[in-house]
Specification:
The chain is an all-alpha fold. It is 71% helix and 2% strand. The chain has a two-stranded antiparallel sheet with strand order 1-2. A hairpin with a 2-residue loop joins strand 1 and strand 2. The longest helix has 31 residues. The chain starts with a helix and ends in a 6-residue tail after the last helix.
């Protein structure tokens, strides 16, 4: 009886619990070695943006901006709300509340990414249990949970990527404007933080185009007399039901259904074109948002991609890393560095689940046969 009463509020209780745990333990975590530098970088970018907008004098920050070198290509727009609060106090706040606020802010983004993941998993598997389990893995991964407070680069980027990929999947289910614009904005902040996020954008773009093509081929297949293929796409499923109903009505009235009528074909083509138009507009919104929140891109919105690519190819950074008791330069890491580091810092359960998932995916791909018709 009690379980039945709690069930409708399970998601609220679940996420509320982890939110409270995070908020009450935020001061248990210290600072990372480069967090002070990241704060300075965000401060300079914020002041530079205000200078470009003629809100403050730019002269004091122009030279500092140039001296930052490659750091100015790492956007800090996601931390601008915190800089606005500091600005209200004329940047005179004590360092402790400043960094505690940054840690809380980073954690809230990580926690929000869990909500995005839950929504995507629930839609994908049609199961709240699977969705809860997936989010548990997200929250209970020790490194993720700990670094969600003080790592405002890698883990923050990971959280934004989770939000971007989840929103892309949710968008492909119904192709609504809201989900598309949400994807565009979240993805812009992701790419702003790490330009490598463009690889995620390319992956998501291929996936969305694949979903769009599936609508075209499946609609044509059903309308031309073939059987309706199985699909999880909400929009496609409703369209297929409409086509099947229309063909059934035509059959019962004695009208031939050996080929789709001209009006039906035009209707399907129009629907596909409308989805493609939404994709194009949301891509434009993504790019406009990216340029708007990235002061480095204001001078040359198109050339910024080439500059960042050149920086990524030869990033001027060198350091030594302690690995298996030896000090190794970061440009001469052995091939086994990544797997050893990964499995040494992950719980055995997570490692076992990862290996099982990789095995399952490989087995699944081997059994897939592509049949568009």
């Amino acid at each position: 009886m009690l379980v039945a009463k709690i069930k409708p509020y399970a998601a609220i209780l679940f996420f509320g619990f982890f939110l409270l745990v995070g908020l009450f333990t935020v001061d248990h975590y210290g600072m990372s070695w480069d967090e002070d530098m990241e704060h300075l970088t965000s401060y300079v970018q914020y002041k530079y943006a205000l200078g470009k907008l003629r809100i403050v004098e730019l002269e004091d920050y122009e030279q500092l901006w140039r001296d930052f070198g490659g750091e100015k290509y790492y956007g800090q727009a996601i931390s601008f709300p915190l800089l606005i609060v500091e600005h209200l106090f004329n940047f005179q706040l004590d360092s402790r509340p400043v960094y505690l606020a940054r840690h809380t802010y980073n954690f809230l983004i990580f926690w929000t990414a869990g909500i995005f993941l839950y929504a995507a998993l629930k839609k994908l598997f049609s199961s709240r249990k699977v969705a809860f389990f997936g989010v548990l893995l997200w929250f209970l991964c020790p490194r993720f949970w700990g670094e969600s407070f003080y790592n405002n680069k890698d883990l923050l980027f990971c959280s934004l990527m989770m939000m971007s990929m989840s929103s892309a999947y949710l968008w492909s289910r119904k192709w609504g404007w809201g989900a598309g614009i949400l994807w565009a904005i979240v993805t812009a902040f992701m790419v702003n933080l790490r330009i490598i996020g463009l690889f995620a954008v390319l992956f998501e773009g291929v996936y969305l185009l694949k979903e769009l093509l599936s609508i075209s081929f499946a609609s044509w297949r059903v309308a031309s007399g073939g059987g309706p293929p199985k699909t999880q796409n909400t929009l496609l499923r409703s369209k297929l039901r409409l086509i099947v109903r229309r063909e059934r009505d035509a059959s019962s009235s004695g009208v031939g259904v050996s080929r789709p009528n001209e009006q039906s074909s035009r209707s399907e083509a129009k629907a596909v074109f409308w989805v493609f138009f939404k994709m194009l507009i949301c891509t434009i919104i993504f790019y406009i948002t990216y340029v708007a929140i990235f002061p480095t891109a204001w001078r040359d919105p198109l050339g910024i991609w080439f500059d960042v690519y050149q920086l990524m190819r030869n990033y001027p950074m060198g350091m030594f890393i302690i690995f298996l008791g030896q000090s190794i330069h970061n440009t001469a890491l052995p091939w086994h560095y990544l797997p050893v580091y990964f499995f040494a810092t992950m719980p055995l359960l997570f490692s076992a689940l990862l290996l099982f998932a990789v095995f399952f995916i490989i087995k699944k791909f081997k059994s897939i046969s592509i049949n568009l018709f």
